[in-house]
Amino acid sequence: MVELERLDLGTLALFAGYACMDEVGRRLRRRHRGLRFSHGFLFQHLVEGARTIGELSEGMKVTQQAVSKVTSELERLGYVERVADPGDARVRRVRLTARGRAAVEGAREGRAALERALARRCGEREIARVRRTLGEVIRALGGEAAIRSRRVLLPR
Asked: Fewer beta carbons under 10 A from the terminal one: N or C of the chain?
């Protein structure tokens, strides 16, 4: 039997993150059907504004075909749309629709609600301490820039 407290910090943080994201996803899918955790990697690049498939591909470090596939899926679900670039109508940009922006807001609300529930269970001071500690771990390992620039990738 696995004892949680005996797991190494990285594995424990990863599993805690997975559990949190799984719960947020469950809550989000009640209102926003069809969304998956992996869609968040595209959403994070669209929060700041519309991007071309090439820009998304470069930012996500995946092929344009992969981005096009996810974009088409999210387009069918109504979360993104392709629009003409204001400076060059031949160029198409992908942007969040109102439904996509609502899903982003729903995910934010879901994370906040989960954190409130965890604070009730563990105590607000403990949650604040864990947040500070995990933030310091991220800084120590050089992950802060990727988070600030919304360029978080899966580990290689």
From this structure: N
